[in-house]
Amino acid sequence: MPVPGNQRESRSMAGRVVLVTGGSRGIGRAIAQDLGKAGAEVAVGYVHDRKAAESLVSELIGTGASGRAFRADLSRPPEVRRLLARVGSWRGRLDGLVTCGGIYRGATVEGTPASEWEEVLRVDLIGSFETVREALPLLRAGRDPAVVTISSVLGSHPAIGGVAYQAAKAGVEQMTRVLARELAPAVRVNGVAPGFIRTDLNRGGHEDPHYHRFVSEGTPLGRWGEPEDVGPAVRFLLGPGSRNVTGVVLGVDGGIPLG
Predict the structure, then answer these.
(1) pTM surpassing 0.90?
(2) Is residue 128 within a helix (H) or strand (E), and if so which, with residue range?
(3) Of the listed 46, 104, 165, 211, which one is catalytic?
């Protein structure tokens, strides 16, 4: 008996092992939840909030999925190596990797000390690179392996403030394209660039009535995005429906680049 299309989609990640860094909160948490609902076994990477990561794992297990929390500071390469070693001991392979771990600092050029510039690049750009590089043996042992990096609309459309963050995300996008060339055909690499998403990371923006309205009016779809808007895009790029897609950075931004 044929399986309905929506049911096929809902189990499109069944049996696939996926690591989501930055998975304990915000966009990363929503991605992990979406993948778990689609049948994936999810390794949840976190750095500070162990309670949030473990509650997510409990939630995944409660819905019939599988998961485990792994702590690592992505700004420290030895910790990234240990993270991938522990994930390898857990399942022995990776079918998917989502590099969502990151931080934001909102200072302008003159207000950005060298330490802050370096901090953001170490986590958002170098941390993403180190994670992919250390994951390669597990990915090559996986089934139809795919990587999805998480960038931002600010990686290609500049705004005032957050210069280090914007530079790091621009680097993530070009890194994504280079990795797609270098790792083909064994591993597909794509990116997702969210727009303004309502998370704890930017609470100061979306809870400010004036800034909230400014962003909404500047977005063709007329609203801020939600973390749950990002998960399905990531799932598509990790799954069989995108088997001929690599080197793409998919905007989930409400149309902001349209101007």
Answers:
(1) yes
(2) helix 127-140
(3) 165
